[in-house]
Amino acid sequence: MNKFVIVDIETANPDITSICQIAIVTYENGEITDQWHTLINPKTYFHEINVMIHGITERKVKNAPTLSDVADIIKEKFADNLICSYGAFDRSSLTRIFPELPNQWLDIVRVVRRSWDKQFAKYGYGLSSMAEALKINQENHHDALDDVLVAGQILLKALADSQQDLEFWLNRVRKPIDLEAYNKAHCKLEGNPEGSLYGETVVFTGELSIPRAKVAEMAAQAGCNVVTGVSKKVTLLVIGEQDITKLAGKELSSKEIKARELIEKGYPIQLLSENDFISMIQN
User: Fold this and answer.
1) Nearest 5°: phi and psi at 128?
2) Which of 45, 55, 85, 183 is a good FRET partner for 168, with 20 to 30 A between their CA atoms?
3) Domain BRCT: where (predicted)?
4) How many domains does the chain divide into?
């Protein structure tokens, strides 16, 4: 298997289907053979947090195509190729929008964890952190094309350093990494190492429609580490209904306030509704 594509999306708001930018780059024998990217008019609102992250506004996409306008192009780029993404978010979004996609997916973060877990644990495994650790130039983090190109360099370096091919990694990412080393580094609740979201760390806030213990169990089975407080290691915050009597006059919970503060400092925390998170773990 010498050919694959890498995809990255940016979204307008917490809805994982509100795509406002997409980039798809095709690699063959370690070389880029095609690259395509475009802004997307999501026909929905832009949340200030998302705009702060990627800088894309409603005005910038006013004359951009809608997702339905470019759906055939996306499917043509994917064809029957292996699709790679840096993390599970892009896959969750695109398989929600295009449930008919038959492609295999490879999460580059899972490759990174198994290639350099001990070497780069102190840096964290976010795209920008790994780019810095591997001395890969990144000009515009959270621009979809720039993120794809950086992710491509990371994946190619992992393949070279491990001296293994994509077939090997498709199998390897389904197996545990060194759990003892991982637990020492994190000292947190463990997710299923074979789950598709392994490496994500989730916190819940607010009232959920099903018992929190059940959701936590589902999240852990899907691979998420479930923790009780927001920190720099958290990657997902699931927001349920808030009881205003517990907010001490504030509009947001203390967990959401802290998460937004960390997002403003550049930490890649994704804010999700309960429904979107359930959909993500079911995928």
Assistant:
1) -65, -35
2) 183
3) 192-283
4) 2
pTM of the model: 0.66
Residues 80 and 200 in one domain: no
String of b and e for 69-105 (b: at least 16 CB within 10 Å)?
ebeeebeebbeebbbbbbbbbbbbbbbebeeeeebeb
> Same domain, yes or no, for 40 and 153?
yes
Q: What is the pLDDT of residues 145-187, one digit of tens each?
A: 999 999 999 999 999 999 899 999 998 888 777 644 444 343 3
Q: What is the CATH number of the domain that holds 248?
A: 3.40.50.10190
- List all residues 6 or more positions away from 266 whose beta carbon is below 8 Å from its beta carbon: 128
Greatest pairwise CA separation for the chain in angstroms: 59
Which alpha helices (H) appear in the chain, and where do they start and end? 48-54, 67-78, 89-97, 108-120, 127-133, 144-162, 166-172, 179-186, 212-221, 254-264, 274-282
Picking from 129, 175, 144, the residue whose alpha carbon sits closest to that of residue 70 is 144
Q: How confident is the model at residue 189 (pLDDT cuts 50, 70, 90)?
A: low
Is residue 51 located within the same domain as residue 109?
A: yes
Boundaries of domain holding 234: 179-282
Q: What is the pLDDT of residues 92-145, one digit of tens each?
A: 999 999 999 999 999 999 999 898 867 777 778 889 999 999 999 998 889 999
Answer yes or no: do 195 and 159 share one domain. Answer: no
Q: Are residues 240 and 140 in the same domain?
A: no
My answer on whether 158 and 185 are in the same domain is: no
